[in-house]
Amino acid sequence: MTLLAGTTATLLVRREVPPYGWFLGESDEADSPEVLLPYGEAVSGRPHVGDGTDVFLFHDDKGRITATLRKPLLQLGQMGRLVMADFHPRFGCFLELGIGRQLLLPIKELPDDKERWPREGDELHVVMKQDKEGRMLARLAKIEDYERVVFRAPASWHHEQRDCWVTDTFRDGVFVLADGGVLGYGALGYIPTASMTHPLRLGEKVTARVTQVRDDGRVTLSMRPSKEAGRLEDSDRILDFLKSRPGGAMPYSDTSPADVIQKRFGLSKSAFKRALGKLMKDRLIVQDGNWTKLVEAGGDRPSSDNESTTST
């Protein structure tokens, strides 16, 4: 019999040896291999000699194959979403496995850009495998792993908000798994960089709006509100900013460079122009060259003599 770490086996309780625990084997033959079930791992009750019992196998801190009655969140060859408990700059991410021990996701599995590395509490989709010594190890799930469990998103998802977990990162966007709720495991999706409100990292959980349900059942999502809702929200933000400025003026207008607008307001150039258009239509602001200014209470354009030239 081969005792494989990361698997569940039904073994015979051969004998109890205080103060260690119970020794288990495939049979009661003296030459058959044994594995220790420590007292501390018998969380669901004391087994009895001669009984068969289901145990999960793992390597202890000394590299010995060991048994536990704890139920793991993931087994060898399975894919699952595990919470990152800790990070080591040399080794990688340590993921909660549900048995009081953690599963290592090696650092070589992470993106080259460290800004995209997961943080404690993030949830990573991984598959359990073994290293050359037969010890449990994790790898990031690949597209073929997802395709076995995901479903085609229904058309009714269009415009809905879905919880998503980032599964892979690229320069122009991130791939995500959109939560399926009662429908199942989830659907594959993509969030373009232009549709993010902040850069996303591997394993991060976000809520995004479905902007397209594709013919292949995958979805495109955006973290930004719809144009109309976004226009109102962006307008309020710009108006509040102007009210906080000396003289109610700011050195930004619809002629400002897109990268400046993105850095200062976190908005695309088109979203910024839509928000300014609404405020001008409502007669709350005017533009004067490269400056945008609040309209005074009487409705007159603010005097250029009192402009503040202080930039942010």
Automatic annotation (TrEMBL):
GO molecular function: nucleic acid binding
Entry superkingdom: Bacteria
Domain S1 motif: 166-224
Pfam families: CvfB_1st, CvfB_2nd, S1_2, WHD_CvfB
Family: Belongs to the CvfB family.
Protein name: RNA-binding protein
Organism expressing this protein natively: Cohnella nanjingensis
